[in-house]
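Notes continue from the previous slide.

Worked example: a multi-chain complex. Inputs as given:
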Amino acid sequence: MFTAVEPEVKVTPRDRRLLPIAEKVYAGERLDQQDGITLFESLDILAIGALADWVNRRRNGDRVFFVANQHLNPTNVCILRATCTFCSFARTPKEDGAYTMSLEEAFTEADRIRETPIREFHIVGGLHPRLRVSYYEDLLRGLKERYPGVEIKALTAVEIAHLARVEKTTVEDVLTRLRAAGLDSMPGGGAEVFSKGVRATIAQRKLAAEDYLDVHRKAHRMGIPTNCTMLYGHVETYADRVEHLSMLRGLQDETHGFLTYIPLAYHPDNNELGEELGREGTATTGFDDLKNLAIGRLFLDNIPHIKTHWIMNTAKVSQIALHFGVDDLEGTVVRERIYHEAGAGTPEGISFSEIIRLIKDAGKRPVERDALYNEIREW
Amino acid sequence: MAKALPILSTVAPRRRGPTAQGAIDTAPHAPKPEYVPAPLDQRPHADEIAHWLQVLRDTPLLELGARAHALRLEQAPAHVSYIVDRNINYSNLCVTDCRFCAFYRRPKDDEAYVLSYEEIGAKIDEAKARGAVQILMQGGHNPYLPLDWYTGLLRFIKEHHPIHVHGFSASEVEMISKVTKLPIDQVLLELHQAGLDSIPGAGAEILVDGVRDVIAPRKIDASRWIEIHEAAHAVGMHTTATMMYGVGEVWEDRLEHMLKLKAAQARSLARGRGHFTAFIAWSFQPLHTEMEHWNLPLGTGMDYLLVTSIGRLLLDNFENVQVSYVTQGPKMAQLALTFGANDFGSLMIEENVVSAAGIDFIMPESEIRRLIEDAGFEPQRRYQDYSFVQDGDEGCPCCLATTRSPQPA
């Protein structure tokens, strides 16, 4: 029934502080950090959404991309178990529930989806103290042999830097070996919030901002496209968020290697940070989820795609996000562990046909893509 | 008295929801009946339906939201209110077999129950101790409970556990009237005089008979539902109006439903006694119901925000639009506050009907207040008449204002 309409009329925000920002957006001018903070402070989400929608339509039209993918989390053993207090997934090697998949187990897990024609593996896990690059090379090679058409988006900057340390070699060397084994692109996880103060509080020993960006810079220079993220909704301020976005935008100006920005909602259940903050049972709000997506679209004027991750935001909010500047709906995730350990109440998978229905129901055109946003088919 | 149930010997339970152990009976299910929506020109309010269809086609979602929000700011206070109440389901025994319902049990089912007055009184005391200013009391269509049982209960509550009783529903009133062989007006008057303060809008589902024939063939039809609400208004009670969408209906049905409510509200406002205080929409929750197997396209996030904003704009003679966080979840409920809704519904100390269908987004008051504040509104506890709860109140103002005779008129 509902058909999205090409907005001819430019909106006039109710919140008058947004007026100069709206002018900049319609004139195609870049937003500065103060604009970013003003947007986060504003409660006029309808205006923020309409501005982001306007920008998105000019770039992507009515198209909404999705990819049929499977998440694979080879290990939850992580040397940052004690210090990344926001994480519900990591375990110490001897802790209850710790696991590391043998290659056979990983292939069996991948095999669970033989029935589904997937296009992408999304592979991330913990910083295991003893797994070597060769484990991941064998994993990637094995998957490519078994599923020749399926692209592999694997290992965050944090995992790549960790492997370089384990192997006492360079990031470039690790990336070269993994690419030879089948790595096509890299996910954006591990960015959290770049601010030193925030990192000291929630992820004390994790790869520093400059190093995260440097791994991505090196990947981009080698021609490996990557995604970028921000974990919001814990202790960060609006200024921290905007500084983070500025750093991503700065690297993108330099390399143009980011494909997609994905704001990740912090889930407060089953982790030390949630307990410490007394935040259990209080997920990020719908307002904040949509603001992070829409402001991502407005501020990151040089990143082509903004993705909503329905596992975190729920399918309902993710569908609404398609009117808030979002052009990518995280695909048919077959099995997801990380967010579900943190209390995400969403189902673990959503069917291909349901994704298509949700996109069409929002008045948009569903476009199945591959990992590099090549159009496979419009549905 | 309340617990002695006659046995209905002819009809066996047709299907079962989850048992206490959580297992689901796998008895064969009736096939999905076909639903053919009526053409536009055969519908009441056809011109207005056509107009609102055009609005839906021509207006981007966020613009529709902005219009609804602007109207909401004109019509309702800038606060977002909510009520602390407890759902008390006095009985789950029902003979209407609505296909969308996971709560009811047939008379011979060992899980069928009727609560005693004392059990209900104890639940009220618990609720009041936790700040409740109202009970929402609903049950099935129980053919064994005469009017006396209800008036006796209401008097018992008002005498021993006084609280605002927002109770029953149009279809329960119809059942009482049939069992008692008294006209609706008489039943409503006696209930009101015994202590019934207002009537919830349940049982409206979709107020289009074609849809009702498919999902609830034995429930009162659309015009009867409206007639009973108007009769309640005429007696001096306020009621609410609901809509359950996502049952296979089309947008024309949703609009016809809202336009019928609008017309009824206009008549009641002209009468100058009771009226509809709020419109509340939610989406059908299929788990453990007969319709679970129909593979219906369920209500989406778009559906919810469109229904909420069209609800505000079309029902411009309704003051309040409530969110349904129990079915939509906290995130969507909060978003609805900028798409025309002004009330967060109730902080439910107990809820049984929606949770029987597997959805359970019940949350503490602190979380409701956090969501409202995060959306930029001041949260306010309210009474059923939408006045705010103030420190030092003596209780619900509408109940204090009404003094009723202890005997039926």
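Summary box: Residues 75 and 100 of chain A are 4 Å apart (CA to CA). The mean pLDDT of chain A is 91.
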